[in-house]
Amino acid sequence: MSTHDQIIHISDRAAEIAARVEDFVRTTVAPYEKDPRLGAHGPSDELAQELKALARHADVLTPHILPDGGHLTHRETAAVLIRSGLSPLGPIACNTAAPDEGNMYLLGQVGSPEMKERFLKPMVAGETRSAFFMTEPAEEGGAGSDPSMMLTTCQPDGNHWVINGRKTYITGADGAGVGIVMARSDDGACMFMVDLPDPAIRIDRVMDTIDSSMPGGHAVITIDNLRVPADQMLGQSGEGFKYAQVRLSPARLTHCMRWLGACIRANEIASDYANRRQAFGKPLVDHEGVGFMLAENLIDLKQAELMVYWCADVLDTGALGTVESSMTKVAVSEALMRVADRCVQVMGGQGVTADTIVEQVFREIRAFRIYDGPTEVHKWSLAKKIKRDWKAAQGS
Q1: Recorded GO terms, molecular function (predicted)?
Q2: Which of 180, 243, 286, 364 could form a disulfide with 282 if both were Cys (CB 3.0 to 4.6 A apart)?
């Protein structure tokens, strides 16, 4: 166990797994960062499967889920997922990427034994990808940051449910084999497990977005009379929002873990550049304007790391962690944006090229500030809590 892992109290098993993951990502995955199979809508499925095969051989595939089906604690998961994020391709290779990681967690927590065998098992084995169908087009008045606005409907029909609606920003839908679809019944929100592809789920288009790390990109979807057997509903009709919270709080946190790893690596690259590059008679790092930016990066990275582990500890108590994950998502995404921006600035013209991953990390972190709830939505939610707590303290 490293001195760093001892300081932040990482268990021996997590430290051992994390060390193997870090070595694999740095030595085996990083050389693929210029692979021609990387496109605007993410790495191709061919590349993803090649990387997963390498991870399987190295015994680091889905490392946060134990051989007996158990899950590392959230604190242990942080140690592992931060290391998997040291390359934008690391989470794909290690099968710790979104949306699969969050979907696996949800199924592990609330799926029936039959669902786990049919849907979860091939996901854990890295044999299939998944998608989470929740967000809807804003121009149609659908659910975005406010899932209570959901317009997609589900109606019972014998021993099936029939689903109709539109979805957008559905990460990984193109090429996914498993889907979790949210829809609204007369009882409230519902979740369904579905096999993909299905002719009733049509990909209208895959959008061109600022980020490019997730296979399949982000799609606009039309669901037209999708028939789902009743036994493929997660839980009971009307329980969908409850299950969404089971997934969303940990998922916000694991995003923070992975992108923290990416920014650690970007800062390493920028620091190496600043020490090697000469300007005005001395290394860049000796110019205060540059050296201070790198110093500020160390501060932001450490604060982000501490927030991640604090929130992980809250979730490990069994708490839902909605407030804590909101605070962590805001603090970490904003801190990492500062880090990524400084890395680009330190490297100057080199920082805006694709010669290193710094440029991609900057784009990915900019998108991270929006997905899983924009900063402003989380602040609004926290402000509402402040008001509720104040009223409670006044006895009103």
Answers
A1: acyl-CoA dehydrogenase activity; flavin adenine dinucleotide binding
A2: 286
**Structural domains of the chain, ranges and CATH numbers in brackets:** 3-97 (1.10.540.10), 130-234 (2.40.110.10), 241-393 (1.20.140.10)
DSSP-based three-state secondary structure for 204: strand
| Tokens found for residue 331 | 């603090």
Distance CA 19, CA 352 (A): 31
State the sign of the Cα–Cα–Cα–Cα dihedral 114, 117, 123, 128: negative
Is the Cβ–Cβ distance between 131 and 174 less than 8 Å?
no
- Given the structure tokens 């085996």, which residue do they identify? 28
Q: Would the pTM count as exceeding 0.90?
A: yes
DSSP-derived secondary structure for 26-95: IIIIGGGGG-TTEETTEE-HHHHHHHHHHHHHTT-SSTTB-TTS-B--HHHHHHHHHHHTTSTTHHHHHT
Task: State the DSSP string of 197-221.
Answer: S-TTEEEEEEEP-S---STT-EEEE
Q: Which run of H or of E encompasses 300?
A: helix 288-316
Angle, helices 375-393/322-347, rounded to nearest 10 degrees: 140
Q: What is the DSSP string of 240-258?
A: HHHHHHHHHHHHHHHHHHH
CA distances in angstroms from 369 to 110, 211, 241, 264, 366, listed in the order given: 28, 12, 23, 17, 6
- Number of Cβ within 10 Å of residue 349's Cβ equals 8
Per-residue pLDDT of the chain (396 residues; tens, 9 = 90+): 454 555 678 999 999 999 999 999 999 999 999 999 999 999 999 999 999 999 999 999 999 999 888 899 999 999 999 999 999 999 999 999 999 999 999 999 999 999 999 999 999 999 999 999 999 998 898 887 787 889 999 999 999 999 999 999 999 999 999 999 999 999 999 999 999 999 999 999 999 999 999 999 999 999 999 999 999 999 999 999 999 888 988 999 999 999 999 999 999 999 999 999 999 999 999 999 999 999 999 999 999 999 999 999 999 999 989 999 999 999 999 999 999 999 999 999 999 999 999 999 999 999 999 999 999 999 999 999 999 999 999 986
If you ran DSSP here, which 8-state letter would residue 231 be given?
A: G
